[in-house]
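User: I'm putting together a small comparison set for a docking exercise, and I want a reference complex before I start. The sequence is below, and the ligand is zinc ion. Could you produce the 3D structure with the ligand included, as structure tokens?
Assistant: Of course. I'll restate your input first, then give the structure tokens for the complex.
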Amino acid sequence: MAATDGGRAAGALPWGHAAQNLPGRPPTCVYSTVHGRTYGGAMKAHLALLAFAAACIAASDPEGERLLSQRTLSMPVLGVAPTSLHDMFNDKRGGSRPHEAIDIMAPRGTPVLAVDDGQVAKLFLSKPGGMTVYHFDPTGRLAYYYAHLNQYAPGLKEGMPLKRGQLLGYVGTSGNADPGAPHLHFGVFKLGPQKQWWKGDPVNPYPALRNAAVVTALR
Ligand SMILES: [Zn+2]
């Protein structure tokens, strides 16, 4: 399995996890590390390390999970069955960063499809994710994130409406994916009140995709 990140964009930060460091968020790996340093002392450092480890387990947003369970999804990669998926939301990427997404292995050039209706919120080129699509669901509460694309579907534009099963692009290895292991990095996050495409609370996509319909032909 390719040990890649595909992490979402977040302003100027390289790894796309700025959203986790905002006030009101649970402590993150970065925050906990700083916290540990400020305490000092062997025992306290040890406790801080324990807290550090606990904080590095990814948390899937419960409200986001509820919202996602209400959506009817289809699989984001043509011909891939849900039974072939593995839950890798809590896997670590690049050390202690949680993956917060799922990797779907497929040959380069396999069509990547919209999992739901909605609209294209952003087409973004990022260092870890490469060619990415941010897709808002019809309720505007959830965003779907597709990364490491080989190329976009012809005519794909920001703001355009999407139908479930619609072609978004093709599986590839853009960004930090292993060139020998093409895959789609697929994530879901719950949007905040301002509906900023780069910011939100991660939601584990695995339970919803396990119930998603296989797509065997392009629309
Ligand atoms: Zn990934």
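Residues 4, 6, 99, 101, 103, 185 surround zinc ion (CB under 6 Å). DSSP finds four helices and eleven strands in the chain.
User: Thanks, that's exactly what I needed.
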